[in-house]
Design brief:
Elements (H helix, E strand, L loop, with lengths): L7 H12 L11 H21 L3 H5 L10 H14 L4 H13 L6 H7 L6 H11 L5 H4 L3 H12 L4 H5 L9 H12 L5 H14 L15 H14 L7 H16 L10 H12 L5 H12 L3 H12 L8 E5 L1 H10 L5 H18 L7 E5 L1 H9 L11 E7 L2 E6 L8 H20 L5 H11 L11 H18 L3 H4 L11 H15 L4 H13 L6 H7 L8 H11 L5 H4 L3 H10 L12
Helix pairs in contact: 2-5, 2-12, 4-12, 5-9, 5-12, 13-14, 14-15, 15-17, 17-19, 18-19, 18-20, 21-22, 21-26, 23-26
Length: about 600
């Protein structure tokens, strides 16, 4: 790579199993192994492009308006030189590190060689100690470079999380230890090699999409990485908190936010860290974060600022809210949520985690917000997001998962009245025959009936059936026979004569004549399948099996009606009719009479 001017096809060809036999571990058919194989190849190519000074190849897939600049490329080459990566022994070691770095994430590799290890780094640490011979590329290194490779492979730092401040100051204690230990041996290049390896991994983070250069590491991403690299060069001279503050100060400068890195005030620290978490890059959104924090009550501000300042070094435990950046970004993008509600949820998550781990001796505890982030992205209910209930499920001594519950209890009369108004407008349009398309109807019922958001991905069939039932009410009230039968097989279509009988039955027996009865019918259709949702039934009606879903729903409506607000807002007459309709002996013709 350094001397022969080897071309890219020749490099990738020589990488394969003869030079790095560990690539065989990635040849499994499962999707995870395939993705890791591409990420590994991508990282090795990043090393090839940077070591052979091929900026054009590195940037060829990047958009012209954000492409990595030549001045930045020179800095990348400087980073390599500081670590000695431009010299054969270190470059060889870096290629080994890139080949091995993701092996711990391969399910079969981890299960066979380190079944009790938690996480990819721990898997590799166990293998390097207990059975290193399965990694011949590592074993062929001499003692000096094996030590370097081991440090880079087993020191755990997710730099992307560090740069957006998801991690806490204690997260870089392990890197500080590595730097201090290597310095005692006179090997001051460890940090630069470690950071270069993280750079290669980040630059290849989109390798599963394309290996045509580094799609990810454009000028904006390099700027963020450079701030992290610069901050980390002080790790041997400053405390973890001081290094962390350098990251925050870099973001504050870009956004014009006040931040004193030597001694920041609690509120400015909280605001800048939240800006990092939101991955904010423009001034207007930075001001939105300030405004959202300002809308909190004084006690809420104080509590959230305290949680955000826990460092895991002097104040323990500190909490890493994993995926909190995606959560806040989704809340910011979703107008139905907004940042203020998101901050109130974060405060509740922090408080619940603190209660659960109050007696823990751990410096850092991770709370996974993956499910909460996904929920915030799709949230479209008419009730308030900040009232979202959730469960904290503890996985082990240092990790728990936040599991949001789709059903939000509603007891505030103002919220119930607002739902009633929305439904009244909807039913009035249906009964008056106003120009409402099916698309408009679907959008309106999603806003008027929050229960439609209760269906998880596993209950997609029930969600679609519920929408279908509500659409049927629209077609029946509007006497739209052609629309009702459009998907039916022609020879089996409902006849016009049968349709006329149904219309007569609706008029004389069911008697959907006004907004109130039409509303009650839509409510019944919106909630009738809720008892089929296992999580909903098991939590609110324990002891009822799937076969008894109607009885389970009846039990819920009687005992905890606040979790079904569309039902709760109805008059007593219609609430009783719906509960009766869920009984075995119910006759549908009696409904809404």
């Amino acid at each position: 790579v350094l001397r022969t001017g080897m071309r890219e096809p020749g490099f990738t060809k020589r990488l394969t199993h003869a030079v790095f036999p560990e690539m065989n571990f990635m040849s499994e058919a499962d999707e995870m192994s395939k993705a890791i194989a591409k990420e590994t190849l991508g990282a090795l190519l990043v090393v090839y492009w940077t070591a052979s000074d091929q900026m054009d190849a590195f940037t060829r897939a990047q958009k012209a308006d954000g492409k990595l600049k030549e001045t930045s490329w020179k800095k990348i080459r400087e980073m390599m030189a500081l670590g000695g990566v431009d010299q054969e022994p270190v470059l060889n070691t870096v290629l080994v590190i890139m080949t091995l770095h993701a092996l711990g994430r391969i399910p079969k590799f981890a299960a066979q060689l380190a079944p009790n290890a938690e996480g990819g780094r721990q898997v590799l640490a166990h293998v390097l100690d207990a059975c290193p011979k399965v990694l011949p590329s590592y074993c062929r290194l001499n003692d000096k470079y094996r030590a370097l490779a081991r440090q880079c492979l087993t020191r755990d730092l997710d730099l992307a999380q560090f740069l957006c401040a998801e991690l806490v100051p204690a997260s870089i204690t392990t890197i500080k230890e590595m730097v201090l230990l290597s310095s005692k041996k006179g090997e001051n290049y460890y940090l630069h090699v470690f950071m270069y390896c993280l750079f290669a991994q980040m630059a290849a983070s989109h390798a599963t999409k394309s290996l045509d250069g580094s799609v990810f590491m454009n000028e904006e991403q390099w700027s963020a990485f450079e701030a992290g690299w610069d901050a980390m060069t002080y790790i041997d001279k400053e405390s973890e908190q001081d290094v962390y503050n350098r990251i925050l100060y870099h973001r504050a400068e870009r956004l014009g936010l006040s931040f004193h890195p030597k001694k920041p005030e609690n509120e400015e620290y909280a605001i800048v860290r939240l800006a990092c978490l939101c991955r904010v890059t423009n001034l207007s959104v930075g001001r939105q974060i300030q405004a959202a924090f300002g809308e909190l009550k004084p006690a809420e501000k104080e509590a959230l600022a305290r949680y955000l300042r826990l460092d895991g070094v002097t104040s323990k435990p500190a909490f890493i809210l994993s995926n909190s950046s995606n959560f806040l970004e989704n809340c910011l993008a979703n107008k139905e949520v907004g940042l203020t509600s998101a901050l109130k949820i974060l405060l509740k998550v922090y408080a619940a985690a603190e209660k659960e781990f109050r007696s823990s001796s751990r410096a850092v505890v991770t709370v996974k917000l993956n499910q909460l982030a996904a929920f915030a992205q799709d949230f479209g209910s008419s009730v308030t997001f900040q009232d979202l209930p959730f469960e904290m499920v503890r996985n082990n001594e240092a990790e728990m998962v936040c599991v949001p519950k789709m059903w939000i209890p509603v007891t505030h009369q103002g919220v119930l009245d607002d739902l009633s108004v929305k439904s009244k407008v909807l039913t009035k349009s249906i009964l008056n025959g106003a120009g409402m398309s099916e698309r408009m109807f679907k959008n309106d019922i999603a806003k008027a009936f929050p229960e439609l958001s209760y269906f998880p991905a596993a209950a997609e069939a029930q969600r679609l059936q519920t929408y279908g039932a509500m659409m049927s009410v629209l077609w029946l009230i509007r006497d739209q026979h052609d629309v009702f039968i459009r998907q039916q097989v022609e020879e089996e279509q409902l006849s016009k004569q049968s349709w006329a009988w149904i219309q007569e039955w609706i008029k004389d027996s069911v008697k959907i004549r006004n907004e109130e009865t039409a509303d009650a019918m839509l409510v019944f259709m919106a909630i009738h399948a809720l008892g089929k949702i296992p999580e909903f039934r098991e939590e609110l009606a324990p002891g009822f099996d799937a076969q008894s879903h109607d009885v389970a729903l009846s039990h819920i409506l009687k005992n905890t009606p606040e979790v079904v607000p569309s039902f709760s807002r109805l008059s007593k007459k219609y609430r009783e009719l719906i509960i009766d309709s869920l009984s075995v002996d119910f006759q549908f013709s009696q409904f809404l009479q």
